[in-house]
Design goal:
two-stranded antiparallel ribbon; 4 helices; single chain
Amino acid sequence: KVRLCPAQATCRTLHAGERAAMTPSGIGPVERIDPELAALWTTGWIEVHDQALPELLTELARYSARPIRYDSRVLADVRVTGSYKLTDPEAALRSIASATGLQIEADNASIAVRR
């Protein structure tokens, strides 16, 4: 278990299989997660089930050598399911684009995901 204590809010304890986002002003809703899926990143993979695409792109961007640019409002309704290799985020993006009909535009500076 872990105890979350934001600077300006009441502390909350999370147990195995739970997650929540924390800001200085509070803690977001507690969500149930599968601990085995959550630990896949340790093996170089991420697995998502019916996840909003902007959330996945945020995670993939952490592993990308180039920034991944996208408009989260435009992509908010795109949901994805799959397993993606974190050591090759560009391959993950190509797979996502193929499955969703989105376009990937890359140059030396960044990678853009567009409708």
